[in-house]
Amino acid sequence: MMWLCYIIMLVVPYLLGGVNTSIIVTKLKTGNDIRTMGSGNAGLTNTLRTQGKAVAGIVLLGDVAKSVLAIWAVRLAFLYIGGVDTHVLANGMNWVGYMAGFMAVVGHVFPVYYGFRGGKGVLAAISAIFTLDWRTGCLLLGVFVILVAVTRYVSLGSCVASALYGFGTLIFVYFMDGDPAGIVCTFIAFFPAALVIFMHRGNIHRLVTHTEKKLGEKAK
Asked: How confident is the model at residue 95 (pLDDT cuts 50, 70, 90)?
């Protein structure tokens, strides 16, 4: 039944990741599509700027929950259907959780429910990272917080933190834990990082041209 586990690993996180709380809650509140408001991004930052803190808080909880649920659903499927505990490093299957996390980010960025146009994947990604390895999550969150505090640019913090994801996984999972699947986990980690940075290509251009909005600036 391992074939079923691999199908679940790819499909379930993608479908869960595609449930976009920002689109849903904004639609219920205003009747409008968040993707036509502010920066046009269906994510936490644009929700905060256009809808306020209360709605942004709901989006925060929703994006965190779906990433955590996606990874745990896949790990439980491997445990109860495939008979493999992916948490046990000796099994060499820890990479399964990383693939599930990646697929949750893919679902968030390219949701089948919304014409494959979703958010930029930052919150979905960091939620998955913390679920997989809290040390890497703390490292990246620390980098993000420091950069945003100093520059007030959320996009800059997101891109730099994303760029460090693979290296953090290599250090903590492969070298420190000695995970036999550590290299595979590291390899997979570069994909959501690259996707998040790619989705920020417009922000990167605005950073270079000094037209990017800083944290706290209201969207027009």
From this structure: very high
Helices (H) and strands (E) in the chain, counts: 11, 0
> What's the rounded Cα separation, in Å, for the pair 32 and 189?
35
Q: Which residue has the tokens 């959780």?
A: 97
Q: CA dist 180 to 93, 125, 128, 165, 184, Å?
A: 9, 23, 21, 19, 9
SS3 212: coil
Distance, CA of 195 to CA of 191 (rounded, Å): 6
Q: pTM higher than 0.85, yes or no?
A: yes
Burial class for 83, CB neighbours closer than 10 Å (0-12, 13-18, 19+): exposed
Direct distance between the N- and C-terminal alpha carbons of the chain, in angstroms, rounded to an integer:
53
63 neighbors 124 (Cβ within 8 angstroms): yes
Distance of alpha carbon 169 from alpha carbon 130, whole angstroms: 11
